[in-house]
Amino acid sequence: MGNKPIINVVATQCQPEDEEKFNKWYDEIHIPMLLKFKGITEVTRYKIISESEEYPKYLTIYEFENQNTFEVFQTSSELAAVREEMNKTWKDKGFETKWRVQYEPTKTWRR
Fold first, then answer.
1. How many other CB atoms are there within 10 angstroms of residue 2's CB atom?
2. What is the spatial distance between Cα 11 and Cα 57, in angstroms, rounded to a whole number?
């Protein structure tokens, strides 16, 4: 495995009535808990510009140091704590993860 950073891209959709609760929770609880894992170097959240039935409203990109770090994260105590907290907070299923996928860079251009 190389030393290239890995991004984990997660697309989510929440119920309209839960949107305020979802965003507050995601920003103030979920992300800070995930950042306790030292191998996550950056997290960026996005909101779709033009809403559509075809695409989830929210996208989050988590950057990991490398593939090995991402794999270690999958069995980490930090992720276990996040899953436990998430199941308690969202037992009523106010949001859904539509998909998640990982990428590694092939090339970067900067100005």
1. 9
2. 8
Q: For residue 107, give the 3-state DSSP assignment.
A: coil
- The contacts of residue 32 (CB under 8 Å, 6+ apart) are none
- Edge-first strand listing for the sheet containing 95-103: 40-47, 58-64, 6-14, 95-103
pLDDT digits (tens, 9 = 90+) for 56-108: 999 999 999 999 999 999 999 999 999 999 999 998 788 999 999 999 999 99
Task: Check: CB of residue 82 under 8 Å from CB of residue 62.
Answer: no
Residue 31 sits at φ, ψ, to 5 deg, of -65, -50
Quick one: tokens of 89? 């907070």
**Distance (Å, rounded) from C-alpha 70 to C-alpha 6?**
7
Residues 6 or more apart whose CB falls under 8 angstroms from that of 93 comprise none
CB atoms within 10 A of CB 69: 19
Q: Which residue type does 53 have?
A: E
Residue-wise pLDDT for 42-54, tens only, equals 999 999 999 888 9
